Amino acid sequence: MTVNRPDTGRTSSGPEPYEYVIVGGGVHGTCLANYLLAEGGHAQREICLVDLREQLLASFATRARQCGMRTLRSTYVHHIDTEPFSLESFAEGAHREAELVSTENYPNRPTLELFVDHARNVINRRDIGECHFQSKVTGVTRSETGDRLDVQTDSGTLEARRVVLAVGLGSPRTVPAWGRSLPDDAPLAHVWDDDFSPATAAEFAGPTFVVGGGITAAQPACSLSEHTDVTLLSRHDLDIELTEADPYWINWRHVEQEIHTLPSGSKARLDRIRAARNDGTIPPYVERRLDEARDCRDLEVRRGEITSTAATDDGLFVRFDDGTTAANAQVVLATGVGPVPEHPLVEAVAESLSLERGADGFPVLDDRTLAWRRTDGSRSAVSVSGALAEPSVGPFARNIVGARRVAERLLASRTEAASESASSALKGRS
Ligand SMILES: Cc1cc2nc3c(=O)[nH]c(=O)nc-3n(C[C@H](O)[C@H](O)[C@H](O)COP(=O)(O)OP(=O)(O)OC[C@H]3O[C@@H](n4cnc5c(N)ncnc54)[C@H](O)[C@@H]3O)c2cc1C
């Protein structure tokens, strides 16, 4: 079954394939769709934004709320719109300037609610919802004619000229060995599990251990400590950094000098990027929140690890690496996500279209156009955005600003392809 125009109530424009099928309607997919509509001159009917969730951006908003995030770590110029000051103007128009929170030695940062409301405003203003097709993409193959891509979804096949994978950060379910054989109903959760509820966790009668040493552990530890007895358990001393990487990594020129000069697909690129990223750190304003919670004796910060757990009728019996134990406990993991190159769709697409993968399985992209290279070195019609694009976009690839960087290259490559085909047509005539 070919679903050229999915039956979702959206405008139909005949049998033409989509110009772009974007897989993933999170921050990246939605931002890319916005750029293609606003600056690429595309109509909604030319773009299909496939996401299994009912609402665009739901994955980000849910995860952020689940981990007790109040404000973004990035500044007010980082959002899904094309104009840098769009979010600031939105805040002023809605008399919500107070939600642009001042930060020492850094521009203001929006509250989570302001960021999400602004994004919804952009989605409505540009009718991006019309591009949304709620389904799960299971594979991408070459069409029978060879000039298009067939995108397989749970609801049929979509035809596209180009496909962008914007599937997010990777699977959240990275459970340490000591938690893998616990029964399903044991009080062990990952802060980004779809069914993790901070409200339910806050009602737990026994002690709560939040495992992790970065911002995604510190924020829920603070929030939960308003309701229950919490220990933040980190393997290392807490590291304080304001941003995810030095802001000069936002600029293409710096990324080109530091990353693109290293061989494509190399481990050296990943090492450089990992050294530049401040992963597992917390910003100073979250450190202050932790200190306040500690002062009120609601929260303990402890250095150590869990070595074993056992389920009991009243919770978990937990043993720590210093030999101490805790009974009747619940454990909330904030231990990051699995590697995004292991996303099943990434594996499937690489295999079916013979696309090249480099160190740690990352796609090998053409740095200039961000097209995923085939194993024969040619450029395919598949691109990637988000964490998957890190080896070409650099340490901020997964962040909001990374989506803007990808959009710029996608739009530029489209213009380049159009002028290449115009000049070959002229040559053909002469
Ligand atoms: C709690 C939190 C706070 C953050 N704060 C900041 C911040 O302040 N500033 C900043 O710049 N960055 C921040 N980030 C990093 C980054 O901006 C976010 O992770 C952002 O959500 C990444 O966008 P994304 O589109 O890559 O992934 P997501 O927003 O997770 O979207 C991926 C989408 O792909 C869909 N998908 C996956 N597979 C398929 C499939 N096979 N078929 C169809 N759909 C599929 C998913 O349903 C999902 O909706 C934060 C991240 C988190 C988790």
From TrEMBL:
Gene3D superfamilies: FAD/NAD(P)-binding domain. It comes from Halorubrum californiense DSM 19288. The lineage of its organism: Archaea, Methanobacteriati, Methanobacteriota, Stenosarchaea group, Halobacteria. Residues 21-168 form the FAD-dependent urate hydroxylase HpyO/Asp monooxygenase CreE-like FAD/NAD(P)-binding domain. PANTHER family: L-ORNITHINE N(5)-MONOOXYGENASE, PTHR38663. It comes from the Archaea. This is FAD-dependent urate hydroxylase HpyO/Asp monooxygenase CreE-like FAD/NAD(P)-binding domain-containing protein. InterPro entries: FAD/NAD-bd_sf, HpyO/CreE_NAD-binding.
